[in-house]
UniProtKB/TrEMBL annotation:
Cross-referenced InterPro entries: CMP-NeuNAc_synthase, Cytidylyl_trans, HAD-like_sf, HAD_sf, Nucleotide-diphossugar_trans
This protein's name: N-acylneuraminate cytidylyltransferase
Domain of life: Eukaryota
Gene Ontology BP, a term: N-acetylneuraminate metabolic process
Organism: Dicentrarchus labrax (European seabass)
Length: 435
């Protein structure tokens, strides 16, 4: 679906020698375009908010992924003063600018931090400041806005959203004044459908030439344009402080990467640590026992109902008895397969035999041996109590821990992505028929 885009241009500043400032780049016209995401460690509202998990992904991971997948940037950076944020940023593929103490204070402005980055990276000609708190950013937003800089001659472009809210003048407590309307006539109060509304910054991104940043100290100046984003993509965690509400918005409208999770046909799930708590009980008679949560078995049935084959994995490093594997197979209706030290070696032939690609596969693991499969699968997840090495490789981190609903949670996530894809395909057909 094409982005809804409108423009407003102010003034003719930034024109030198007959060319807009944004057209006077390097020899040959090639300019270095960088994305910069500001992520200071000292959040007052939510500690380390920028790497707090939102819908299974660190908050900053949503915008880093969208920036990288847009393929519009020569470099993608995270500016931070915190070691943990640096680790997460690098894990998600960004370069890191360790900002100085001078621009890491509570009183430091975004502009000061951006100017420091530009001074240290003089090769950058166009910079996009992407807000870490805007997790519903998609690559097509970035592409549409940057085109306005690179092809249409604007010096700065920023994101807006259309709001239909009537505003009234504030009256201070104890004042004798009365409030009055600021953007409506109460006598002729318009219906929503008869009013265009107003454009408000949504904070998702600010594209600016570095000349404008360094010479005039502006993120919005010269030839200015706006890029209008639809309201469903305008999620700002600074406003949506109710994290569960924000998560539901992101699960519905967020960008989950280039993979096409709607075609998942096969799921691999570790028994130990995912389907169970990772513990095996030994009886006096020598039998093995495990505890399986009914929520998780229901999650398996939900996937099977949608024609997703689920295969349960046991490890040669932590084997379960044949009788126990048979009982699991009988109870869940799943094939139970034992894998070696590198599960990928055993699973590749199974994927190929079914004539599938790894983008068609979901994988749920919980430790270091699973890393290669977690990276390769179109959708991958770990329980909330998985070690960091597995969390960093997974595309989704569950709130629930192993054996206590993690499998059910991941199943719901898979089915939600499938539902989103069907809705998008339907909308694409409607759009194509209307042209």
């Amino acid at each position: 679906m094409a982005p809804l885009t409108k423009r407003v241009v102010h003034g003719d500043e930034g024109v030198r020698d007959g060319l807009p400032a944004c057209k006077q780049g390097r020899p040959g016209g090639k300019r270095h375009v960088a994305a910069l995401i500001l992520a200071r460690g000292g959040s007052k509202g939510i500690p380390l908010k920028n790497i707090k998990m939102l819908a299974g992904v660190p908050l900053i991971g949503w915008v880093v992924r969208a920036a990288l997948d847009s393929e519009m940037f020569d470099s993608v950076w995270v500016s931070t003063d915190h070691d943990d944020i640096e680790k997460v940023a690098r894990t998600w593929g960004a370069e890191v600018h360790r900002r100085s103490a001078q621009v890491s204070r509570d009183t430091s402005t975004s502009l000061e931090t951006i100017q420091e980055f530009v001074r240290l990276n003089p090769e950058v000609d166009v910079l996009c400041n992407i807000q870490a708190t805007s997790p519903c950013l998609h690559p097509f937003h970035v592409k549409g806005a940057l085109k306005m800089i690179l092809e249409d001659g604007f010096d700065s472009v920023f994101a807006v959203v259309r709001r239909h809210q009537f505003r009234w003048q504030e009256v201070k407590k104890g004042s004798d004044e009365f409030t009055k309307p600021l953007n409506l006539d109460p006598v002729n109060r318009p219906r929503r459908q008869d009013w265009d509304g107003e454009l408000c910054e949504n904070g998702s991104f600010y594209f600016t030439t570095t000349d404008l940043i360094m010479k005039k100290g502006l993120l919005q100046g010269g030839k200015v344009a706006y890029y209008e984003m639809l309201p469903e993509y305008s999620v700002d965690i600074d406003v949506d402080i109710d994290w569960p509400v924000a998560e539901q918005r992101v699960l519905r409208y967020g960008y989950f990467g280039r993979a096409t999770p709607e075609v998942v046909r096969l799921m691999f799930c570790n028994v130990s640590g995912c389907l169970t708590e990772g513990r095996i009980f030994l009886t006096a008679s020598g039998e093995d026992m495990v505890s399986v949560n009914t929520r998780d078995t229901m999650g398996i049935r939900m996937l099977q109902k949608e024609e997703v084959e689920v295969v349960l994995l046991t490890s040669s490093q932590d084997p379960v008895s044949r009788s126990l594997a048979d009982k699991l197979a009988e109870r869940t209706g799943c094939q139970v397969v034992q894998v070696g030290e590198e599960p990928l070696d055993d699973l590749k032939p199974m994927v190929e035999k079914r004539k599938l690609q790894w983008k068609d596969v979901a994988y749920m693991g919980n430790d270091k041996p699973d890393v290669n499969c977690l990276n390769l699968a179109g959708l991958s997840a770990v329980p909330g109590d998985a070690p960091v090495v597995a969390i960093n490789a997974a595309k989704y981190t569950c709130h629930s821990v192993g054996g206590k609903g993690a499998m059910r949670e991941f199943a719901e996530h898979i089915l939600l992505q499938k539902q989103k894809a069907k809705s998008q395909m339907k909308q694409d057909r409607i759009d194509s028929c209307s042209h």
